[in-house]
Amino acid sequence: MNSAYDILVIGGGTGGIMTAAQLLRANKNLKVAIIEPSETHFYQPAWTLVGAGTYKYENTSRPMKDYIPKGATWIKDKAVKLNPENNSVSTANNGDISYNYLVLSPGLVYDYSLVEGLEETMNKNEVCSVYTDPKYVYKVLQNFKGGTALFTQPTTPIKCGGAPQKIMYLSESYFRKHGKRNNTEVVFATPGTVIFGVPEIKKTLLEVVDRKDINLRFGYMLKKIDSKNKIAWYAMAEHEDEYNHKDLNIEKDGDLVGIHYDMLHLAPPSVAPDFVRNSTLVNAEKWLDVDHHTLQHNKFDNIYGVGDVAGLPTAKTGAAIRKQVPIIVAQILANIEHKASHFKPYNGYSSCPLVTDYGKMVLAEFDYDNNFTPDPNLKKMLIADSSKEHWRLWMLKKYMLPYLYWNKMLKGKQV
Ligand SMILES: Cc1cc2nc3c(=O)[nH]c(=O)nc-3n(C[C@H](O)[C@H](O)[C@H](O)COP(=O)(O)OP(=O)(O)OC[C@H]3O[C@@H](n4cnc5c(N)ncnc54)[C@H](O)[C@@H]3O)c2cc1C
After folding, report:
1. 107 lines ligand 1 (CB under 6 A)
2. pLDDT in tens, 357-411
3. How does pLDDT run across 145-187, given as a tens digit for each residue?
4. Is the CB of 361 under 6 A from ligand 1?
5. Is residue 342 packed enough to be buried (19+ CB in 10 Å), middle (13-18) or exposed (0-12)?
């Protein structure tokens, strides 16, 4: 296949499907193609709930074919090389495909090699992750007999920065409900300096941490997992700090500090896919180099980036994508139709639904400057202050957001 497309989209995940759907909804005559190898589309935000046993994994996926927008061509293949000078993308099985505009939304990939010992033990031996196998997380919680439940995250950017905390708060409740809490220490070891960057949210989360008696450890940079002896080894950052101290079983090896665990939950180290990393389109950190306000590539005007692959200093979430896609669509349509484009520049909006308990949630919405920017529509749901735990926010997360995702967002409708 060597045909030219008005717009070629790489990736049929959240960003790719939403972009193609909105473009075609605005102009059904556009020639749009999506390169996507997978038969299945996943709603990843529900995996945290799957890990805590309160959502069915089967309900987090649907056939890709049902969500490729009508009028778009599905190229069931993998992009393997970007050729921006020739306006083409090389694929594994369909040769080079040319485009007028390229939208990159291939997400991110997990690089286990960045933590020694991780590859061998991921998703086994009580080392679990809602990012990779949420069903195994729930098994680990069920089989846990007490001891140290260690929750951690890598030094790389990750999807939905709050997810490692959400599963921790739910796990703590699970232990409490099932009589395992008295002989358990719940520990959160993070390379960061704070529990959350937005002051209003930080305040609430520290109250949650106090209520749940969780030990927070800051400045912990995960280097190695010794799964035989169940020790997570960390290099310490200068800002090492602790909140709500607990005496844990700690080891030292030179500069490394080891925490003994009985179960370990982690977000895996994450990087851009190889074909992006190996291209000329990346920034110094090897994420797609796009303008922070227009999402247009910084060197190639006809290339845009959306979602997890984009090198943007904000949280990588579907909620961010919801705000990013209309900005890209407005620019591409204006260019094609030779009109001036009108859009509000992207302000870094992202959102993290921080589940703090079964039936409770805080909704962190924020911009590049960590300003708390709650959606005014929440008032209509009788939620006066979304920086506080609320049952209605839990209902939003468990029922409303999945519905809006499958039925509105992926269909290119405004929500
Ligand atoms: C555990 C967890 C909890 C989360 N919680 C939330 C939440 O509560 N709220 C929220 O808003 N977000 C949440 N997210 C994040 C959200 O799911 C992602 O930010 C979003 O799905 C990213 O969309 P994307 O289009 O960038 O990538 P994805 O949706 O991951 O899609 C990428 C697509 O690209 C395809 N692809 C990859 N490589 C290639 C290639 N070489 N060629 C062609 N196609 C390719 C893949 O097959 C995939 O279909 C969570 C994520 C996880 C894992």
Report:
1. yes
2. 999 999 999 999 999 999 999 999 999 999 999 999 999 999 999 999 999 999 9
3. 999 999 999 999 999 999 999 999 999 999 999 999 999 999 9
4. no
5. exposed
Instruction: For ligand 1, say whether the CB of 164 is within 6 Å of any of its atoms.
Output: no
Angle at 253 between CA 252 and CA 256, to 5 degrees: 80
3-class DSSP assignment, residue 71: coil
**pLDDT tens for each residue of 99-139:** 999 999 999 999 999 999 999 999 999 999 999 999 999 99
Q: 250 CA distance to ligand 1 centroid (A)?
A: 36
- Provide the b/e sequence for 365-398 (b: ≥16 CB within 10 Å): bbbeebebbbeeebeeeebeebbbbbeebbebbb
CA of residue 317 to ligand 1 center, whole Å:
8
* SS3 of 240-290: EEEECCCCCCEEEECCEEEEECCEEEECCCEECCHHHHCCCCECCCCCECE
Domains of the chain: 4-108+272-348+403-411 (3.50.50.60), 112-270 (3.50.50.60), 350-395 (no CATH)
By annotation, the residues acting in catalysis are 160, 352
